[in-house]
Design a protein that fits this description.
Elements: H1 2-10, H2 25-95, E1 106-107, E2 112-116, E3 130-136, E4 141-146, E5 151-156, E6 163-167, E7 181-187, E8 192-197, E9 202-207, E10 214-219, E11 223-228, E12 234-238, E13 243-247, E14 255-259, E15 273-278, E16 284-288, E17 293-297, E18 305-308, E19 323-328, E20 334-338, E21 343-347, E22 355-359, E23 373-378, E24 384-388, E25 393-397, E26 399-400
């Protein structure tokens, strides 16, 4: 357009000069036609530009929507991944009391009676000199070796009565009878309980699905305590032979894994071992009853190490006074009951003194008292269960989270 204007202004001449070409009708027609063509092209270009902008805007919006949807989906997926992880962690904390139990853990001093407590007797709401217990966290039940009733009783949480799951047919040596059973453990993988039938010098396996289905596993062993490791190997403390024996599925003969060198107080000897506990490293903790000590035998060790011995704090006692039961948490704290001191003590690694955690020095029947405590156990929440044999009851001490 600028070049045309320049040509017009430059094309001014005298009157007698040759006529200007643009002054003719055909010239104006050609110029108007060119203008219309250019205008049409411009309109077309603008239309295409508007259409392109519209399409581009739509695409951007669709991409933004897609991105937003993707973000929502990704966030949802992340939540779905996080929630199971949180549940798994929580489950692990519940399943493993060692996560929440340590040297500073305390328990409420007033216990709850969860089995027995209605006097000594053979009714279903009574116990008679109970000894060993086993906690089943899956259904919140307790299996109790009801020693002088010659039976194993299952007690559901909150129940008034127990249920006889083995024995209960009088004292005897028949397959459906027991004779002063001293301990019981749960074999979850096979849905059985395994019983230390001490008076009959045998180990019995009894089905939880059919109480009539019982099998003698081992004979001629004066068992006092049972334990099972992660491989489902069975450990038995042999009171008479002063040793601990391990049995694996299919074994025809047990292997001595602690003691077995006659009765004595040397580090390779035991003297009437009572309770045993096996940790995740397959170390065995033994309440060495007549030697007034707790011994630890590491896997494949030939000698043990004393891990609880010496004087009790504030007790003025020079010995453990016959340790009855022992359990261990994940950091190696040892919890022990003994026959003459009516309390449960905790022995931290490397210490020579035990600290009372529940019970008092004198026997009693109040909620904060014990009388000749025997077996011990933790549940998933870290609550402490004590066989209060002198009161014919099972006491539950709630973990104190305050």
């Amino acid at each position: 357009m600028e070049s045309n204007k320049v040509n017009v202004y430059n094309g001014v001449h005298p009157i007698n000069a040759a006529p200007r070409q643009r002054s003719t009708p055909s010239a104006y027609y050609d110029t108007g036609k060119l203008t219309r063509v250019l205008f049409s092209i411009l309109v077309l270009i603008l239309s295409l530009a508007v259409l392109a902008i519209a399409l581009l805007t739509k695409k951007i919006n669709e991409e933004n929507i897609s991105i937003s949807e993707g973000s929502i989906i990704e966030a949802t997926t992340t939540t779905e991944m996080i929630i199971p992880d949180m549940i798994e962690i929580t489950t692990k904390e519940i399943l493993m009391p060692s996560v929440i139990i340590n040297t500073d853990t305390k328990w409420k001093q007033n216990a709850i009676t969860v089995a027995g407590g209605y006097g000594r007797g053979n009714k279903l709401n009574q116990l008679n000199d109970p000894y060993g217990i086993c906690i089943n966290d899956d259904d919140n039940s307790i299996y109790i070796a009801d020693r002088e009733n010659h039976r194993i009783v299952k007690w559901q949480s909150g129940a008034y009565n127990g249920e006889i799951v083995a024995g209960g047919n009088g004292r005897g040596s028949a397959i459906h009878q027991l004779n002063y059973p001293k301990d019981v453990i749960l074999d979850k993988g096979k849905n059985n309980i395994i019983i230390c039938d001490q008076g009959n010098s045998r180990i019995i396996r009894s089905s939880l699905q059919n109480s009539q289905n019982q099998q003698v596993l081992i004979v001629r062993i004066v068992c006092c305590s049972l334990a099972m490791d992660d491989n489902e190997d069975l450990y038995i403390s042999d009171w008479a032979k002063h040793q601990v024996v391990r049995w694996r599925e299919g074994d025809k003969e047990g292997k001595v894994v602690a003691g077995g060198n006659d009765k004595g107080n040397r580090f390779n000897q035991l003297n009437q071992p009572s309770s045993i506990f096996v940790d995740k490293y397959y170390s065995i903790y033994i309440a060495d009853y007549m030697n007034n000590r707790v011994m630890k035998w590491s896997k494949n060790a030939t000698i043990g190490i004393p891990v609880a011995h010496g004087q009790l704090i504030n007790a003025n006692l020079s010995s453990l006074l016959r340790p009855n039961s022992v359990i261990v948490d994940h950091v190696g704290n040892i919890y022990m009951s003994n026959e003459r001191n009516h309390q449960i003590t905790r022995w931290s690694p490397g210490t020579t003194k035990g600290v009372p955690v529940v019970g008092g020095r004198n026997a009693g029947s109040k909620s904060m008292e014990l009388s000749y405590p025997f077996d011990l156990s933790f549940d998933r929440q870290g609550n402490l269960y004590v066989v209060d044999a002198g009161n014919d009851r099972i006491q539950k001490f709630i973990i104190d989270r305050d």
